[in-house]
Amino acid sequence: MAFTIMPSISHAALEIEISGGNAQQLPIAIVPFHQDNVKNQENIANIISADLRRSGMFRVLETAGVASQPNTMSQVKYADWAALQAQAIAVGKVESLPGNRLKVSFQLGDVLKQTQLAGMDYNITPNQLRMTAHKIADVIYQKLTGESAIFASRIAYINKSKGRYALQVADADGVNPQTVVSSNEPIISPAWSPDGSKIAYVSFEKKKPIIFVQSLMTGQRITLASFKGNNSAPAWSPDGSKLAIVLTHAANSQLYLINADGSGLKQLTKSSAIDTEPVWSPDAKWVYFSSDRGGSPQIYKVSSLGGDAQRVTFDGPYNLSPRFSPDGKSLAMIRNDGGRFRVALQNLATGQVQILSEGNQDESPSFAPNGRVVLYATRTGGRGSLAAVSADGRVRQRLSESGGDIREPAWGPLLN
Length: 416
Description:
single chain, six-stranded mixed sheet, 49% strand, 416 residues
């Protein structure tokens, strides 16, 4: 059979290379967590450290040379860590519990003020240890920067390997990838539901593009749109009740709205042009999209209630693939920058545009849940890989998997 749903099959993790960083990185010490009678478990401190380094906001200090290695704040000798020039310190331990469970304890301290900033306990199963480490990194990030973090989130992408297409979901650090669906025919356009429980995508398994919605918990899926012609480009409304989609069943590509259960189809745009790549504004009042109705691809918006479309981009000969920042203030897009297709960021209030990426064939931008990072696909040497850049352009990451052709990333929401 050419098509399979496999919610638990893992593949090689993405490898991450980081360059650049914030000029004001905060020095922090992550002391190795004491593991009491816990064997063959991942090093939780290493996961936390890697998350914080990847943000570009922290300088994680080497702790091996410090004589005291505390696992609670009461054991911390602040003078030792001040001498290391640490401004913050994280300590913790992992203990075995009955019933094959673990207790993870963690505390965060301010070295300069010699006070505790946060402390949490987690009662988990062993396979939840990595995600717990990401959640601890989120707590540290939030306490020390005042912003929401992204480490306990997931990314989806399409991986083509040996002629087979797979929709995969991984942790935000590229580890723990799982294949959601696999086919010999193309799979494109993954889109997360707002609560992170489902993914909509387009599959050609029936020799034409059809939109499906699949539960990540159960693997169950529904056919959302299988109308005459092409069914493509699903985009969830902020409340998850509807999707904007693109259909050609009546004419050329036009935007439609459809309920999440596949009912209530309603046409949204009517033009002689190609309208595609819809995305909702965070307040659900507008649907932005790409269109060639002005002669070349540009970004437009239309009220989610219907009506006339308004042009949004005027700078540059070619703009498409709009994606909103979570706060609704910026729009990521792909711009033709002198013949090179790059990720750009437009401030919607001022119209100011900043080029963020450096590739020649970049595509499919997707914001992190906190708006700090833009994930995208890039092509070099005929093969696709994932890359990410901070919204200010300072920190760059390259995520790659040997042998795979990776496309169309989508960053999911934070997990509770």
